[in-house]
Amino acid sequence: MTFAHDTEVALQAAVLLANTGLEPDTLESVADLTALFDDLGYSGRHDADEAELAEVRALRPRLRQLLVAERDEAVDLVNAMLAETRALPQLVRHEGYDWHLHCVDSDTHLVTRILAETAMAMVDVIRAEEMSRLGVCADGTCQGVVLDLSRNRSRRFCSTACGNRNAVAAYRARRSADDTAD
User: Fold this and answer.
1) Taking a C-beta distance cutoff of 8 angstroms, is the pair 59, 115 a contact?
2) DSSP calls for 157-182
3) What is the pTM of this model?
4) H or E element in which residue 92 lies
5) Residue partners of 84: CB distance under 8 A and separation at least 6
6) Residues 6 or more apart from 135 whose CB is under 8 A from it?
7) Please, are residues 3 and 107 in contact by the beta-carbon 8 Å criterion?
């Protein structure tokens, strides 16, 4: 299943934002928020102040809950988010991106935009019955959210670091077993 570009970007942004709450927390300052805002490609209003940082930090558990929810629970969460944000989907074109959905005005507060865009992306995931594209990192010591957009659904880890850690552990276990067998 290939999602529209704006859906994939919103999902990636929500996963990245939710995972900033893992240890070590990577969203501790306004500068961190500004860098994240730029990296995620959010257009529109960004207050870049402590109040906005606190609101975005507080949003992370809610995003995580949605991203790892079962389908029927996700529907309830999405509907609540769409109602709360008063989402009104509209097609827009800007900054080199062809027609895509925005569901709140560009001057709407960042937290509201994140909620609305994440909810709209999850509408596509739910309707396509693709909830299996979201899950929790296969690393037993990590609780990161994983978004698997690969064709063969092979993504198991939330980051390269978790994947590498598990590959090294598996290699060492095989090597130890080989040494024991000799």
Assistant:
1) yes
2) -SSHHHHHHHHHHHHHHHHHHHHHH-
3) 0.89
4) strand 90-94
5) 115
6) 68, 145, 146, 148
7) no
Residues 11 and 125 sit within 8 Å (Cβ to Cβ): yes
How far apart (Å, rounded) are the C-alpha atoms in residues 111 and 56? 6
Please provide the size of the chain in residues. 182
Q: State the CB neighbour count (10 A cutoff) for residue 65.
A: 13
Task: For tokens 């402590």, name the residue.
Answer: 50
Residue given tokens 């509201």 in the structure block: 112
CA–CA gap between residue 64 and residue 19 (Å, rounded): 8
Q: Which residues contact 102 (CB under 8 A, 6 or more apart)?
A: 89, 90, 92, 117
Residues contacting 73, CB < 8 A, separation 6+: none
CA distances, 112 to each of 10, 61, 83, 122 (Å): 13, 15, 11, 15
Per-residue pLDDT of the chain (182 residues), as tens digits, is 579 989 999 999 999 999 999 999 999 999 999 999 998 878 889 999 999 999 999 999 999 999 999 999 999 999 999 999 999 999 988 888 889 888 898 899 999 999 999 999 999 999 999 999 999 999 999 999 999 999 999 999 999 989 999 988 888 888 877 777 76
